[in-house]
Amino acid sequence: MRIRKLIQSALASSLLSWNLLAQQPAQPSHQPSLPTVPTPGIPSTGFPDLDQYRASRVAIYSDDFGELKRYRESNASLAPPATAENRVVFLGDSITDYWKLADYFPGRPYINRGIDGQTTPQMLVRFQQDVIRLHPKAVVVLAGTNDVAGVTGPRSDHEIEANWATMAELATAHQILVVFASLLPVNNYTEDAKESYGLRPSRRILALNAWLKNFCAEKGFVYLDYFSAMVDAHGMLERSLSDEGLHPNAAGYKVMAPLAEKAIADTLHIGH
To answer: Per the domain annotation, does 123 fall within a domain?
Structure first.
């Protein structure tokens, strides 16, 4: 009960802060943002934008951690796959969520089940609903960058790896083939990119990608290497492929699309 009261108090404080902000006149875009006031019950990360984001999502974290409601109706209205349909679910965070699959894979029975801001434990909560019950032939998993950033709390590399392994076990148990995508590089070439970059140390991205590549080789899964195709000479996300250092722009998705298509074809043995 004490935890629930703390969460309710944090939510009330968060909502009050948003109402007060809404009543204030807009500040010129050139002025620096003010430091975020920590929300009671939510430890500060030392990164103002992340603290503000976490505070704004107290209700989600307490009431619907996996955000099952996001796709519940869409899933219910989705017809079962046709006999020869190569249905593929793309599971991920905002990088997947923002990807307009129909524009990059016209005519393909690819289903987007990305949710902005999610981490691997949240995806595990909805794996049954948003992947298994849709009966795809394969799932493309792109996850981990928000775990590294601590969006839903600090998480070790070992914990991220364990969550990937659990997704693989669930998919395999239901005869769903798995494609694991690498974490993308990030950059700090713009002011907007500095916090996202600071939250995602390159050493962790490299270590997780190395583990995931080895895991795929051991288990017979296809490893989808976005990182190598999008990293620049400085070890960061190519400037032209992102407007703010974290999410791909149209040019970035154009690099990713053929790589994903090939990985899916290799997994389903299409054209072999």
So the answer is: yes
